[in-house]
Design brief:
heterodimer, A: alpha/beta, five-stranded parallel sheet, 21 helices, B: 208 residues, alpha/beta, Pyruvate-ferredoxin Oxidoreductase, domain 3
């Protein structure tokens, strides 16, 4: 349990941004909180779930989490939802109309941008949503501010009848800093009150709401101009000053301790007048924002041309001191800071791997055997690693649930060279329920020829093993209804005989199932049913070992991709009038091996045997 | 304590080695000593055997949570090649404390890349002061590989701006509450880590 959950008011402790936000949400008297996991925002809901007196859930996707929060707000409860930046794309349909209707109970949407792409498919700037939806954006710079701003955001939401976006980045979510916490301000729920003109957004009703939305934005702009969240942190050296927001403020303050800084916390609507006044106080003004030039462009549109921003600083990635210092030195015509005293050493890369016994390995091993006959549309999860070594068996990844729609498009747009290839889509259980199943319905409905591999490992693996509607457990780990994937696929219209459940640890069975289904010219689904090895549902087996004398160095087992299998020695086999064959003899790290058996099926000379049998033979 | 002096410690290794826990213990010790602390972690897909680093910064007031290359006071490498990967983060005169255990990833094992023969020698050739020892062997001798964490913290204990006892108390205090049976072996691990670092320092001094 997070220390923050039990911390008494006024205690001071080291909290991640995500832990601090959870505490702030609870203290604000929030009654309903929802999310779908996504790095770096996942831990917000995991922490909220530990507090009493509020309802918290894993929703099937971000849009549903948004809708749950909307329903609670309509009912007069303070409500909250959290998501990563790409989750907001999914949720935005509901959000863009909610902004017209407004709120009853305060509603805060935390959106976490993965600036620097530590674990995402793109880098997008969620501050655009404020401009798009005409809603305020607050941007904390550290855990303490994240905690405080959540509470301010709820008040702002109710005062101005608007949802509020709390814009986070990885450096807020996953940085720990000191936070002084407070007390919960509990609030009664007023309950839903009928008001069809407000809540039924027909064109007629929406037309009435539109001018109110614009008036609200004007009022918010006036509020931003006087907000204490936008403040000048003075500096003695006025030759250069900075306007900045979010964690970039910390990097600026660190890099230029003597420069005046206008630190923006309430960043949309932009307090243009306050910035103009600050501009007059410094010789050179630089806007430091991660990642897009939103503040800069708005200032220029308002006539403030004599400023710097993306002409000086990169438009992608974090603006950390090692980026800021040389860029600003160059702008000012100064010597760049000296480089590090020591040269960089770059050893081999260490890319993420699948875990020993990961059931995905069997699927990708099999697909790699069929590589020439299939094109493979992939999705988002641990199984995206199938694109890498040694499988090289995943050809596309775009967005959550996209594998099946993309596969159908590939099926309908065959070229001369690909006309005989089977189209396969690969998707995990959580992603299938998130946004995937509509794609399968579309394949069925439009008579596509796609084989879908539904890798059900009973876990949202990549984000750390969260529960979902297919695991049989909820956010709190309590028993919950569990969706039956085979029945679901059948209900979507896949013929029962085209739905196969396969144990991915049994490679010959899996191989036959995939080979059979790709030859059938209609929609089919193969469901693999081994749990994630990191989940509570996984029971390990006894480890295996390699009989060194029996290993012929063929290295087939290495193609399974298990990190527990390593090369013990190499050799060469010479063949008359043919090129030499490189031999790699292998060994199994028995401490890592959990006995999934996949490598055993890959071994021709049957050199992989249970470790205990090897020990018994030695005795 | 000066307003501007910040201590920067970069802890690095591989997912599952205890890098995050070690960084957390350092941070909590610094808090107990009255410092402002920030701790930044990059562990996007660490669970999958990837590179893990944690930046720990403390002083009177810490702004950025990120250590700028060339300013780390101490580099703690839980694995030897990983230690070498962050060499350029050290400030002149900084110290690298490296566990010489070699953990080979699949891309090396199958021959796509080569594991360097002697990462510590590479670091020394770059001019860095490296203290190295086999933390894994010490842990195994004590009967639990997970003790590497405490051993590495013991190793840097004499290079911190607070007494080694404070760090040891932070570690041991955790076990006293949760697993009292582990107190003694952790005390032992801590002092063996300290001794190993000292021995490496002396060996380096003797060799000139």
């Amino acid at each position: 349990m997070s220390a923050a959950v039990q911390a008494k008011a006024a205690s001071r402790l080291l909290l991640s941004g995500n832990e601090a936000i959870a505490r702030g949400v609870w203290e604000a008297g929030c009654k309903v909180a929802a999310a779908y996991p996504g790095t770096p925002s996942t831990e917000i809901l995991e922490n909220i779930a530990q507090y009493p007196d509020l309802y918290a859930e894993w929703s099937v996707n971000e849009k549903v989490s948004m809708e749950v929060a909307i329903g609670a707000s309509m009912s007069g409860a303070r409500s909250f939802c959290a998501m990563k930046h790409v989750g907001m794309n999914v949720a935005s349909d509901a959000f863009m109309t909610l902004t017209l209707a407004g709120v009853v109970g305060g509603m805060v949407v935390a959106v976490a941008d993965d600036v620097g792409l530590s674990s995402s498919q793109n880098e997008q700037d969620s501050r655009f949503w404020g401009r798009f939806a005409h809603v305020p954006i607050l941007e904390p710079a550290d855990s303490q501010e994240a905690y405080e701003m959540v509470k301010i955001a709820f008040d702002l939401s109710e005062e101005f009848n608007t949802p509020v976006i709390l814009r986070l980045t990885t450096r807020i979510c996953h940085v720990k800093a000191m936070v002084t916490v407070g007390e919960r301000d509990d609030r009664a729920i007023t309950g839903f009150k009928l008001d069809a003109k407000r809540w039924v957004l027909t064109p007629a009703n929406a037309k009435v709401a539109l001018p109110k939305q614009i008036a609200r934005e004007d009022a918010l702009r006036a509020q931003a101009e006087k907000s204490p969240l936008n403040l000048i942190d003075p500096g003695s050296d006025r030759r250069i000053g900075f306007v900045t927001s979010g964690p970039a403020f910390m990097h600026v303050r660190d890099s230029f301790p003597d420069a005046p800084v206008l630190k923006l916390g309430f960043t949309y609507p932009l307090p243009v007048e306050a910035i103009k006044a600050f501009r007059a106080q410094v010789d050179v003004l630089v806007v430091v924002e991660e990642t897009e030039p939103l503040i800069e462009n708005e200032l220029k549109a308002a006539g403030l041309y004599d400023i710097h921003g993306k002409d000086t600083l990169p438009r992608l990635g974090e603006l950390t001191p090692n980026v800021l210092l040389p860029a600003i030195a160059k702008l000012l015509g100064q010597e760049p800071p000296p480089p590090s005293a020591y040269a960089k050493i770059e050893p081999f890369p260490r890319p993420p791997t699948m875990c020993p016994a990961c059931p995905h390995m069997g699927v990708y091993y099999t697909l790699s055997r069929l590589r020439k006959r299939v094109q493979i549309s992939g999705d988002i999860g641990c199984y995206t690693l199938g694109a890498g070594h040694p499988w090289n068996a995943l050809d596309t990844t775009i967005s959550m649930g996209a594998s099946m729609g993309i596969a159908l498009g590939m099926d309908k747009a065959r070229g001369e060279e690909t006309k005989d290839k089977a189209v396969v889509s690969v998707i995990g259980d959580s992603t299938f329920l998130h946004m995937g199943m509509q794609g399968l319905l579309d394949i069925v409905y439009n008579r596509g020829n796609v084989t879908t591999l539904l890798l059900d490992n009973r876990s949202t693996g990549m984000t750390g093993g969260q529960n979902h509607a297919g695991t049989g457990k909820d956010l709190h780990g309590e028993d919950a209804p569990r969706v039956d994937f085979a029945k679901l696929c059948e209900a979507l219209g896949v013929k029962p005989e085209r739905i196969k459940k396969v144990d991915p640890y049994k490679l010959p069975v899996l191989f036959k199932a995939i080979k059979d289904e790709i030859e059938v010219k209609e929609p089919s689904v193969i469901i693999t049913d081994r749990p994630c090895v990191l989940s509570e549902f996984y029971d390990g087996f006894k480890p295996y070992a390699v009989i060194d004398d029996d290993c012929n160095g063929c290295s087939n087992c290495l193609n399974v991709g298990c990190p527990a299998i390593t090369v013990s020695r190499t050799g060469v086999r010479q063949r008359p009038n043919m090129p030499d064959v490189e031999l790699k003899f292998t060994t199994i790290d028995t401490a890592m091996c959990t006995g999934c058996h996949m490598c055993v099926d890959s071994c021709g000379p049957k050199a992989i045997v249970p470790l205990h049998s090897l020990k018994e033979a030695a005795q | 304590m000066s307003d501007t002096i910040i201590t920067n410690i970069l802890v690095c290794g591989i997912g599952g080695q205890g890098v995050m826990t070690a960084a957390e213990i350092l941070a909590q010790t610094a808090i107990a000593k009255g410092f402002d602390v920030k701790k930044s972690e990059v562990a996007g897909m660490a669970q999958r055997g990837g590179v893990v680093t944690s930046h720990v910064r403390f002083g009177k007031k810490v702004w950025s949570p990120v250590i700028t290359p060339g300013t780390a006071d101490i580099l703690v490498g839980f694995e030897v090649a990983e230690g070498s990967r962050w060499t350029d983060m050290l400030r002149p005169g900084g110290v690298a404390m490296v566990n010489t255990i070699r953990l080979t990833p699949p891309v090396v094992s199958v021959g796509l890349f080569k594991y360097p023969d002697d990462p510590v020698a590479q670091m020394r050739a770059a001019g860095v002061t490296v203290y190295d020892f086999d933390g894994g062997a010490i842990a195994r001798a004590l009967g639990d590989l997970r003790l590497v964490n405490t051993i590495m913290l013991g190793a840097i204990a004499d290079y911190l701006p607070f007494p080694a006892d404070d760090l040891e108390e932070q570690i041991v205090g955790r076990f006293r509450v949760r697993k009292p049976a582990m107190v003694e072996v952790n005390q032992k691990a801590f002092s063996l880590g300290r001794a190993a670092a000292r021995a490496s320092q002396q060996a380096l001094a003797a060799n000139g």
